[in-house]
Amino acid sequence: MAETTFSVPDLVRRSFTDARGAARQVIDLNLPIAALAQALVLVVIANVLLEHVAVSMGGGFPTLPEANDPRTEAGYQLVKTFYDNPFYYALVQACLLGITVFAIHVIGRAFDGVGRLEDALGVIVWFQVLLIIMQALQAVTDLILPPLTVFVSFATVILFFYWLTQFVMEVHSFDSALSVLTMIIVSTIGILIAVSLVLAILGVTMIGDVPNV
Fold first, then answer.
1. Where does the pLDDT of residue 177 fall: very low under 50, low under 70, confident under 90, or very high at 90 and above?
2. Is the distance from CB of 53 to CB of 139 less than 8 angstroms?
3. Considering the domain boundaries, does residue 196 fall inside one?
4. pLDDT value for 20
């Protein structure tokens, strides 16, 4: 019998001890795709706000050291432009998450996965909630006990791949964690290359042209 009860604290705890079970619990909620899309927007907004708070607590957006490579400076200016404009920053994050959802769905189905688009969207929303929790923990640690920040950051990277692998396995009923992890890494590299090319093109035309909001 599918689990339909939902308790956020319990689901967070289960995500650390039984990530596939947590993903199944999210999927079994059978939320409509419209509700999941709204939830995705909310987690994007929460993430943007938290990142701005964390950067402010850390002394503001870092300055670029002296660099002779114009591409490095252009990349820095592009990132800072998006950071200084929360709407565009949120839009970029939403697009990246949308690409991730479709990649999980399309690539997983191409390898005989059984997951639905709404399943992929649901677990990615929950995945982002977990990352926001880890980001908040990192910000608090950096404030009260800075030496531990590096350990929290390292744990976040490990959990990132652990959660994503386990969630994709549950969405598509895959059995091999190693195969799924390899697929995630290869797909991520491909997506990053494509996004980098797009951002490079945008960087030529958008630097200095985006107004503050």
1. very high
2. yes
3. yes
4. 96
Rounded Cα distance between 164 and 145, Å, is 28
Which residue from 107, 118, 76, 91 is spatially nearest to 179, judged by alpha carbons? 107
pTM for the model: 0.82
Tens-digit pLDDT profile for residues 35-65: 999 999 999 999 888 887 776 666 555 666 6
Within-domain flag for 212: no
Residue 164 lies in a domain: yes
pLDDT digits (tens, 9 = 90+) for 109-153: 999 999 999 999 999 999 999 999 999 998 889 888 888 889 999
> Contact at 8 Å (CB) between 90 and 48?
yes
For 23, the domain range is: 8-206
Give the list of residues 6+ apart from residue 145 with CB closer than 8 angstroms, or none: none
In-domain check, residue 90? yes
Domains of the chain: total? 1
